[in-house]
Amino acid sequence: MLQDVIESLRQNAPDALALARAEVDAAPGNAEAHHLLGLAQRVTGDVAAARASFDKAIELAPNEPVYHLSRALLARAQGDLALADSASARSLALDPNRFDTYLLRIQLALAAGDFAEAERQIEMAERADREHPQLLFLAGQVALLKGDGERAVRLLGTAAIEQPRDAQVFATLGMAYQQQGHFAFAEQALRKALELDPDQTRWRRLLVEALSSQNRNDAAEAELAVYRKDHPQDPGGMALQGELRLRAGQTAAALADFRAALRQMPRDMRALAGLQNTLVAIGDPALMRGAWEGVLQDEAGLDTIWMTRLLASADDADYDDVLRRWRAALPTSVPARLHQARRDGYIGRDDEAEADYDAVLASAPTQFEALTGKAAIALHRDPAAGILRLDALIAQASPLQAPAALAIRGQARDRLGQLPEAIADWQQARAAFGTDPVDRPLPPATANALIANLPPDPAEAQVVMLWGAPGSGSERIVAALRTVSTRPLLQPADARTVSPRKPNYPESFVARALNAAELPGVVNEMVPVYARMLEPHLTQGRKGVFDWLAQWDARMVPALRRVLPGTRLIATIRDPRDMLLNWLAFGAQADLKFGDPIVSARWLAGQLEHLLFSRDDLHLPVLIVEMDRFDADPAAGVKEIAAFAGLSSAPDPQPAVRMQVDSWRLPTLLPVGRWRAYHELLAGAFDVLAPVAERLGYPRS
Description:
Layout: H1 2-11, H2 13-26, H3 31-43, H4 47-60, H5 65-77, H6 81-94, H7 99-111, H8 115-129, H9 133-145, H10 149-162, H11 167-180, H12 183-196, H13 202-213, H14 217-230, H15 235-247, H16 251-264, H17 269-282, H18 285-298, H19 303-311, H20 316-329, H21 334-346, H22 350-363, H23 368-381, H24 383-396, H25 402-415, H26 419-431, H27 444-452, E1 463-468, H28 474-481, E2 489-490, H29 501-504, H30 509-512, H31 519-538, E3 545-549, H32 557-563, E4 568-573, H33 576-586, H34 597-616, E5 622-626, H35 627-632, H36 634-645, H37 654-658, H38 683-695
Parallel strand pairs: 1-3, 1-4, 2-3, 4-5
Helix pairs in contact: 1-2, 1-3, 2-3, 3-4, 4-5, 5-6, 5-7, 6-7, 7-8, 7-9, 8-9, 9-10, 9-11, 10-11, 11-12, 11-13, 12-13, 13-14, 13-15, 14-15, 15-16, 15-17, 16-17, 18-19, 19-20, 20-21, 21-22, 21-23, 22-23, 23-24, 24-25, 25-26, 33-34, 34-38
């Protein structure tokens, strides 16, 4: 009779329920009868009765592992993860070779976010059946959640072959492909998942993203329309629609979409990011401030929103007002206190800043920024005592934290004349992180070919690129250009609305093809993609865009002029030897690593040669901004930039002025000509830079 119950469970749950009840009535002391009754009750939706039946089965036969497993599975379905964990642990203790129990415990570890435990359980399950498709699926999920997309694709791909009718496997495989940037494969996997289970509409949103990432906007919009028909009030769908509209240059419609999404879910990070991207594309600072004020009316309890509004401040008075309101809304907020301390420190109120840092440390004794802030204040009062405080801070810092403190200690040692010690601190700070700069060869044959293929260039400036050599202080120009309401400024850290910047950006040409013979094809392929990325900023009456580049390569100039006529370049420089020293002391945009000084000097010299070749031989319109002069007279500097870029009025120079010191009142660059003090210590590197320094108008020695 028990076998009849099992067969009925597979085919007809109500019949199984009746048979199981009859078995229990006939043999109330039979544990298996109670267990099968619990299974039938669970299948028919009576979970409370199922729980009681499983408990009775365990009472009658406490050493039967399958009863504990059934209890654990029911608890997991009810969301009682603690009971599921204890029951499955008991099942495993009774039968260490029970494979399905390992699968459950892997799922429980995933639900708890405990990847180490999930991997431990996977290792144990592999002893029983390494190639089981469900185990491969779970192992693939762990790899995906840990960011190991390559391993996730391999495991999930195998699981999909073994389970060709499992929609969840294909959907997860699509997510893994998406994480890896293989958007066409992601689309195929997600379409297969939806074919197998059309009711899982959340996967359609992922499909829209896969299509969008391929710039297949029409197909993405069609799939999104299907999704929004089923979920008209879903904020995620609204945000996705906003992203598609932003890509199409429909900034007003995109703005409305993101605002609507945030009214539904004010803390949705995707909608918040989309709103900011749209406001950057519109490029109206007043509109940006007003939009974030509107968000704050609906949600004033999120630090992220306050920080974004703070960064959009019109002036010091507006900044102080936003900061005051933030602290009133969130009086215990650590980010708000830290911003207040930075503000106090910047304007010289060291006692007030120190009090804020102390308040943060009272609740978070290891908060690194507060500890660093106190050390910076100590440096102002007594440099030697400040260095001792930094010594202690560096000794307890994590590998991620130490570089900032090392860089500050290097500055302090520089001011005290301890030059070898300063270099040692800076080199240690720069060694930990960053990407190695890539050489950009420009042999005569390549140079001649570029000149021969040069198209004519119109006078109108629509795309104005900004490139600053490491250590030049281009961030100061960027700060001023952010105030230009008629022309948005993009930068390498911006979240791109078309596709990730990395694979489609001009500076990645050289990474794709170092061989000059391959370069023309790569450039011709990539520049149109780059142009499409900028398209939203060049349509609907926009007057152009500033784009801040991390590196410069003259070999892309002909293609840029062909696809984006009117492109021109603003380049910021100083004496190359000062730039090299500043790069060592302060790092560089896009985390370009400073390695061996002579190797870094050769790379910097090569970048400057590309700049001069672009101006002198390729006749790209270039404005070279000598930053020592700019710092001395920012008002004149921004007027020169406005005339070159075709702006109707000059940007506000004050943001550039404010960037000459940081929030701890420490200089953001070393004094002009400071390289001379280091000439003996860095003689080889400075000798490499002497010829290009002379070409730029600086003394050779």
